[in-house]
Amino acid sequence: MANVLITGCRGGIGLEVAKRLVLADHFVFITVHDKESITRTYAQFSERKENINVFKLDILDEIDREKIRDLNIDVLINNAAIGDSGPLVDIPIVRVKKTFDTNVFATLSLTQLVIRKMIKNRQGRVLFIGSMAGLIPMPFLAPYSMTKFALEGMVDALRKEIKPFGINIIMINPGSFHTGFNQKNMMKKYSWMNINSYDHAYLNFIKKEEKKLSLIELKKVSKIAKKIVQAVQSDRPKKRYVAPLWQWIFVLLLKLFK
């Protein structure tokens, strides 16, 4: 049994992975962004509640991050993330910075707290939830995509840096899943875009690009959740896990012929 901490567990992939790990008899620190989500998230677990601890962890909040300093964590799953959308030529830079603050800088800050103890103990495992969008550009969802590209570089460097300490650094690349995350990000651009300043042809082009993503979304997150559980439990974990496989192959072909 491992002690696993997962960030961003209010729903979607994070919550599904937490449920599977609890049923596999691991102890899971299930963290959510705000206090209001604690009760609702706890209610998602009908059995083995003695194997969970649900608490607020806003990874941007230094005080919140300090909550985990003294926890005994065998596996950290960096799942918390946000996104934004709209044309890069117009999006306010503060919105792009906010996305990087969460997906890159706060994620690294949290990882530093956990991994220092892992280095001291010379054992542990850190999973980063990346994206297929971190391997190929995502038009009009670029703030999110850019952070996931940055995460790829962070993971590769970190893996090499701590190789002597026997700690596994693992990248998870989910494809497109219908969790509501993409739709929420797509809507964010309408909070700052002046629609009247764009011609209809360009707006139609944006919607067409967004529709491409919606068309390939899988309704259930079970395929990627299974891969993440494998990454947690495997005696010899891979450096990278992907799902669904067909989207991964599609990404490789796009990278080859772009």
Describe the structure.
By secondary structure, this protein is of the alpha/beta class. The chain contains nine helices and seven strands, in the order βαβαβαβαβαβαααβα. It has helices at 12-23, 36-42, 62-66, 93-121, 142-161, 181-188, 200-215, 222-233, 245-257, and strands at residues 3-6, 27-32, 52-56, 75-78, 125-129, 168-174, 240-243. It has a seven-stranded parallel sheet with strand order 3-2-1-4-5-6-7, sandwiched between helices. It is globular, with a radius of gyration of 18 Å. 39% of the residues are buried.
CATH superfamily: NAD(P)-binding Rossmann-like Domain
What is the top-level CATH class? Alpha Beta
Cα-to-Cα separation, first versus last residue: 44 Å
Overall structural class, as computed from helix and strand content, comes to: alpha/beta
Number of self-contained structural domains: 1
Low-confidence stretches: none
Tell me what the CATH architecture is. Answer: 3-Layer(aba) Sandwich
The beta-strand count equals: 7
Averaged pLDDT, please? Answer: 94
Helix content: 40-55%
